[in-house]
Amino acid sequence: MNVEAINIGPTEAIAPVQAASALAGKGLQGDRHFYQDGAAPGEALTLIEAEVLESVGLTGAESRRQVVVRGVRLNDLVGERFRVGEVECLGVELCEPCLHLQQLTRPGIIKELIHRAGLTPTSSTTVTSRWATPSSSMSSPERL
Asked: What are 15-49's pLDDT values in tens digits?
């Protein structure tokens, strides 16, 4: 899998960044969904497939997802342990599109993204990792 984009922001105004630090169980430093005291499973990190974004004409930032990846079917990773670079994750659940996303983009986007809007994993590594873009090469999702 390749990391193609990282989108974070301290408020609802998220934007692409070149690199981000992922802290186990807390999320991406500098992001609105970073939890210093720890996040609930599936609360602090979102992934979405670049191929899906291309099919609906959205960018990663427009999709409200933090990490855009290519070359992996994220739906297959629900309930699985896998790695994105050095970050060990557990696929918690699909990240379904919401009304807020539709209000920020266009009517009909919920229907276009249902069951394709990404994955909410929990990171379980105890080290800080940095993902860098563009196209940081990651091994295919190494299931653990």
From this structure: 999 888 888 899 999 999 999 999 999 898 999 99
Number of domains in the chain: 1
DSSP classification of residue 114: T
> What is the value of pTM for the model shown?
0.87
Determine the 3-state secondary structure of 102 from DSSP.
helix
| Residue given tokens 């994220």 in the structure block | 74
C-alpha span between 13 and 96 (Å, rounded): 20
Q: Rounded to the nearest 5 degrees, what angle is found at the Cα of 61, between the Cα atoms of 91 and 113? A: 60
Query: Residues 93-138: pLDDT tens digits?
Result: 999 999 999 999 999 999 999 999 999 998 876 444 556 555 444 4
Domain containing 29 equals 2-131
User: Quick one: 29 exposed, middle or buried, by C-beta within 10 A (0-12, 13-18, 19+)?
Assistant: middle
Residue 86 forms part of a structural domain: yes
Look up the CATH number of the domain holding residue 43: 2.40.33.20
